[in-house]
Amino acid sequence: MRRALIAAAATGLLAITGAAGCTDGGDTATGSGSKGGRSGAPPIGIILPDTSTSQRWKVDDPKYLKAAFDAAGVAVDMQNAQGDKARFASLADKMINDGVKVLMIVNLDSPTGTAALAKARRAGIKTIDYDRLTLGGGADYYVSFDNVKVGELQGQGLIACLSAQQAVNPIVAELNGSPTDNNATLFKQGYDSKLQPLYDDAKYMKGPDQAVPDWINSEGGKIFEQMLQQWPRIRGVVAANDGLANAVIGVLKKNGMNGKVPVTGQDATVDGLRNILTGDQCLTVYKAIRPEAEAAANLAVSLYRGEQPTAKTVGQPIGQIKDPESGAYVPFVSLTPELITKGNIQHVIDDGFADAKDVCRGDPYDRLCEENNIN
After folding, report:
1. Is the peptide bond before 364 cis (omega within 30 degrees of 0)?
2. Residues 116-151: pLDDT tens digits?
3. pTM of the complete model
4. Mean of pLDDT over the chain
5. Is 25 a residue whose pLDDT tops 50?
6. What is the DSSP secondary-structure string of 83-127?
7. Which DSSP symbol is given to 266?
8. How many Å apart are CA 333 and CA 187, to the nearest integer?
9. For residue 20, is pLDDT > 80?
10. Kind of pairing, strands 171-176 and 126-130?
11. Where do the H-state alpha helices sit in the chain?
């Protein structure tokens, strides 16, 4: 995890005196103003999933979470499971044994997440599902975006791009996220809700439809290569995130089809934005990670202090979401996603999520940024 400290205060965060700590290995820094767990360990533990499937888990979420807890003056032990379920379980066990007061996780799959949440619950630890709902896990709270809406934006955006090309009865491929990630299920629910009526009316033809295990981009590229071999007339691709979109575009480039086949994405990564500028990617969906991280930090601080979280203290509305596996309703801090195309890339930059220097670096991106007034 990048260790750079961000000085900006998190909006609406409850002030607690002291200095915050964060780790990416075995050493733990504990804030002087916070009552930690056993032996002074940080009172809040966070487990992120990996550093390979999206830049957010390697760079963005650690940065914004660290800044938010620093602003609160609360120490945090933040670790990454590196895509390893055994490591995830080991990290959870250590945090629980260290006596954290709040455990926040992004599960690798629901069984692994459920086991960690159950252990925390038995230890009297408050729990938060961050970004991904652990099915059947029974977390005390869930913080994420409206993920069905994310998929709806992807579907709407692809339809708009195909309409702009005046596509007639296009074959659409769906390259879905990991089958073990409930978010991927919700994304698919969203874009299918927009595309299925067109399939039913024979305006579009539904092509290959396959999930990518564990969101592994290289696997996504292999799967799409097979799709294209079997369906060489594919004319639109729903790729569940920018990493998979980039893998799809790589395959399309090898076949001289990039820019001719609209591809969706998600996460507003630098690569995704650059692909939109060149016309190789139709859109991405921006999920503003800073307010998500700040809301999760606000929530964790409230729970650590033994307070009842409210929309005012968390900084975002609190509703409920039904766990489709257990049938239980989980308190849900929900944020709203945004569709990004070439015309509003600047918003992602103005928001501080992407740097124009990265997006516009080198040819042809410097020229394309100038043409599209991106600075």
Report:
1. yes
2. 999 999 999 999 999 999 999 999 999 999 999 999
3. 0.84
4. 91
5. no
6. T-HHHHHHHHHHHHHHT-SEEEE--SSHHHHHHHHHHHHHTT-EE
7. -
8. 18
9. no
10. unpaired
11. 55, 61-72, 85-98, 110-122, 147-164, 182-200, 217-230, 242-254, 270-278, 289-304, 311-314, 345-350, 356-359, 365-371
